[in-house]
């Protein structure tokens, strides 16, 4: 075969091999693209989540967050209403967390309010928490044996009484605390709706005593408040406060607020509900 013919044949074979190589690479890319994703190893255990899925890298927008000073710095009435739906958290010494959604509050409006402990502007060692910055706890004793939990609001001597919670977490611990602390306790197990449906019951269920007086709810390590889960605004009933019959005209002012229809409220006012439908 002449040299020129051999050269032409060699070039044709080289071009053929080049075209085959390109085609093979193209098929490989297509095959890889069509392959199903690799399956997780069948170890019987879930795959370890990456940092973006870890509970230690949670997104504040998707999880409850501790309420700060700006939330509490508002007038008593608006704060009492704003509390409804928020979550009160109590951390015990053994790190057990007790949680409850606030469903009932009462506002006390300072010196002008005849039912407030600060009426007339009087300040004592007992009610000092009412005159401290918004978010300060004011805990007092009634009947010489029961505690009530209040949170100071905007304005000297103003605060909000927490009257009832819907228990969310640590219910069995709440039940044990109530059974241990309530006076004249019977052997009957308390129902969920009976655990925190009153200001003193709330304190018993969360092991709150006078030692919490004047603590800062925005920084305390044993108790704080978190924003409630997203959802529709609760229907709120405004009614007269409970147990302030000697406060004259102030006894009838609609300064108690509760979530309509909640079975965890301490006292339901049917008349107020009918007029506010």
TrEMBL record:
This protein's record includes keyword RNA-binding = no
Where do the record's region annotations for Disordered lie? 1-47
Write one Gene Ontology MF term.
alkylbase DNA N-glycosylase activity
Alphabetized, the UniProt keywords read: DNA damage, DNA repair, Hydrolase
Example GO BP: base-excision repair
**Pfam families membership:** Pur_DNA_glyco
InterPro entries for this protein: Formyl_transferase-like_C_sf, MPG, MPG_sf
Q: Where is the composition biased (Basic and acidic residues)?
A: 8-32
Q: What is its EC number?
A: 3.2.2.21
Enumerate the catalysed reactions: Hydrolysis of alkylated DNA, releasing 3-methyladenine, 3-methylguanine, 7-methylguanine and 7-methyladenine
For whether the record's keyword set contains DNA repair, the answer is yes
Q: What subunit structure does UniProt give?
A: Binds MBD1. Binds SSBP1.
Q: Report the protein's function.
A: Hydrolysis of the deoxyribose N-glycosidic bond to excise 3-methyladenine, and 7-methylguanine from the damaged DNA polymer formed by alkylation lesions.
Would you identify the family this protein belongs to, as annotated? Belongs to the DNA glycosylase MPG family.
Protein name (record): DNA-3-methyladenine glycosylase
Q: Report the source organism.
A: Orycteropus afer afer
What high-level taxonomic lineage is stated for the organism? Eukaryota, Metazoa, Chordata, Craniata, Vertebrata
């Amino acid at each position: 075969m002449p040299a020129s013919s051999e050269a032409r044949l060699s070039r044709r074979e080289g071009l053929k091999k080049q075209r085959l190589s390109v085609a093979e690479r193209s098929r490989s890319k297509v095959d890889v693209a069509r392959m199903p994703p690799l399956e997780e190893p069948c170890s019987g255990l879930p795959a370890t989540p990456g940092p973006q899925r870890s509970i230690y890298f949670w997104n504040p927008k998707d999880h409850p967050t501790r309420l700060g000073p700006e939330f509490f710095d508002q007038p008593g009435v608006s704060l009492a209403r704003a509390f409804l739906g928020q979550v009160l958290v109590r951390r015990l010494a053994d790190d057990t967390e007790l949680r409850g959604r606030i469903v009932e509050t009462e506002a006390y409006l300072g010196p002008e309010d005849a039912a407030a402990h600060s009426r007339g502007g009087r300040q004592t060692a007992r009610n000092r928490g009412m005159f401290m910055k918004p978010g300060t706890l004011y805990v007092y004793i009634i009947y010489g044996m029961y505690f009530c939990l209040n949170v100071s609001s905007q304005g000297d001597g103003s605060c909000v009484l927490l009257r009832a919670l819907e228990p969310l977490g640590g219910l069995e611990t709440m039940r044990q605390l109530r059974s241990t602390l309530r006076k004249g306790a019977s052997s009957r197990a308390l129902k969920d709706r009976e655990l925190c449906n009153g200001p003193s019951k709330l304190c018993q269920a969360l092991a709150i005593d006078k030692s919490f007086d004047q603590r800062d709810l925005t920084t305390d390590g044993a108790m704080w408040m978190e924003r409630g889960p997203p959802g529709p605004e609760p229907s709120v009933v405004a009614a007269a406060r409970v147990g302030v019959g000697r406060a004259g005209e102030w006894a009838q002012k609609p300064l108690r607020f509760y979530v309509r229809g909640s079975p965890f409220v301490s006292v339901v006012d049917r008349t107020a509900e009918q007029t506010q439908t």
